[in-house]
Amino acid sequence: MRHPSLKLKLLKTLMAVILGGWLIWLLCQHDQVSRQQSRQGDLLLREVAEQVLLSMPRNIADVGSAGYLELPPTLAAAPTREFDKIRFQVWSLATGERVVASRKAPITPLKPDFQPGFGHVQTAGDRWRVYAVTDAEGRVQVQVGLAQSQVEAELAHWIRVSLISAIGVLLAFALAIWLAVSWSLRSTHRLRDGMAAREPLDLTPLPTAGIAREILPLVRSFNDLLGRLGVGMQRERQFLAEAAHEIRTPLAALQTQTELAMRATDPAQTREALQRLHGGIERITRLAQQLLDSARLEASRNEGREAIVELSDVATMVAREFEAMAERRHQTLVLTVEEAPVCADVDDLGILLRNLVDNAVRYCGEGGRIEICCHADPVAGEAVLRVRDDGPGVPEHERERIFDRFFRGSTGNGERGSGVGLSLVARIARHHGARIETGPGLQGRGLCIAVRFALQGETTAN
């Protein structure tokens, strides 16, 4: 994928603005010069015609054409740049004879109709701008002409010079702009070189000294991102360390129970050791599953797999999964559901509810009661999922902390949890924009955890 160059984009933009402005200026100048040349040309033609007429003797019409005088051979003709493009003729109106004419003037009259004033004529293979003036007695007429081809040639020369000058100026501007932009972006080059030289896990903030004001917000936002990444990586390191500790403890217990079972000679002792071994395996299996769920949540957080899910179906499915476990503990598992559609990831909802029910079943105690309730609250526009029990509960001052990773409450009914399950519940609820509420459980005892999702569509009771 090709990435546009900022320097090239700035250069193109500035050069386009300058070139556009110069073209507009050139068109205006061309129009102005054309008009100015036309006015000055007419004024020059009239001035030359009047001066020629006033310099002629009264008997010029009787002189006739007798040839032209020549300069001495030793004297070179002076260059006539301004007047070389002007031609004049002096005509005798009585005889229609050309009396006097400038060199290179056409043989035919510049103004064949001999009408005084300005006009355009086509003669001698060229188009001429002509001015004619007649003396007071009507005997002689002076005709002065300016070839349009020479005017156009002069204008083209001016345009050529302007174009060459403009190209030179534009190239100088382009070089100056390129150098100025390159100089202005030196700080970004230093940032790039500094980032390239860093270690892979170096998340220290980028230096902001000498950074241009326009780039400083980008660098600050990048530093904020580095800060958040640092906090996240620190949490992950802490999580891995604590998870390793949590796994190592039951593994050591499993090894101890295995050795006891191998050394036991009494069947009762062997059975007791195996039961403890089974409990340890169950605990480490649960911890491993929770750690896998945590990793899956991190991996699928931005996949966007949300869809309309019926919360009551998820509650029914999870309740059936825990029927056997509750029966072994002589517990009563009650399920009350209504239709409550939500927009969520069905796998995430399963993890959330499994951890809530698992927490209730494990800490409720033998012969306890667990209720799973799912219903819609149309007034609040929420779908409510509630799990409550009549176990020992959690002290009120600890209820907010039970959703922290690896936190264990002071009351556990003899059960030793991992401190991961409820943290998964909080993360999933936060990801789905849901609210978590805690309170006392059944008959003022135990714990109640309610998760409120945004309700989707209409519902009916079942």
Q: Quick check: average pLDDT?
A: 80
Order of helices and strands: HHEEEEEHHHHEHHEEHEEHEE
Which structural class matches the secondary elements? alpha+beta
What is the CATH third-level topology name of the largest domain? Heat Shock Protein 90
Strand content: 15-25%
Q: How many DSSP E strands?
A: 12
What's the alpha carbon Rg, rounded to whole Å? 51 Å
**What is the domain tally?**
3
CATH-defined architecture of the largest domain = 2-Layer Sandwich
The CATH homologous superfamily of the largest domain corresponds to Histidine kinase-like ATPase, C-terminal domain
Write the layout of secondary structure elements.
Elements (H helix, E strand, L loop, with lengths): L5 H50 L4 H4 L22 E7 L4 E5 L15 E7 L2 E9 L5 E8 H37 L1 H11 L19 H48 L3 H33 L7 E4 H11 L1 H6 L3 E6 L3 E4 L1 H19 L4 E9 L4 E8 L31 H11 L3 E6 L6 E8 L8
Parallel strand pairs: 7-9
Antiparallel strand pairs: 1-2, 1-5, 3-4, 4-5, 6-8, 9-10, 10-12, 11-12
Helix pairs in contact: 1-3, 5-6, 7-9, 9-10
Keywords: ATP-binding, Kinase, Membrane, Nucleotide-binding, Phosphoprotein, Transferase, Transmembrane, Transmembrane helix, Two-component regulatory system
EC number: 2.7.13.3
Membrane topology: Multi-pass membrane protein
Features:
Heat Shock Protein 90; 18% strand; 462 residues; two-component regulatory system; five-stranded antiparallel β-sheet; Beta-Lactamase; five-stranded mixed β-sheet; Helix Hairpins
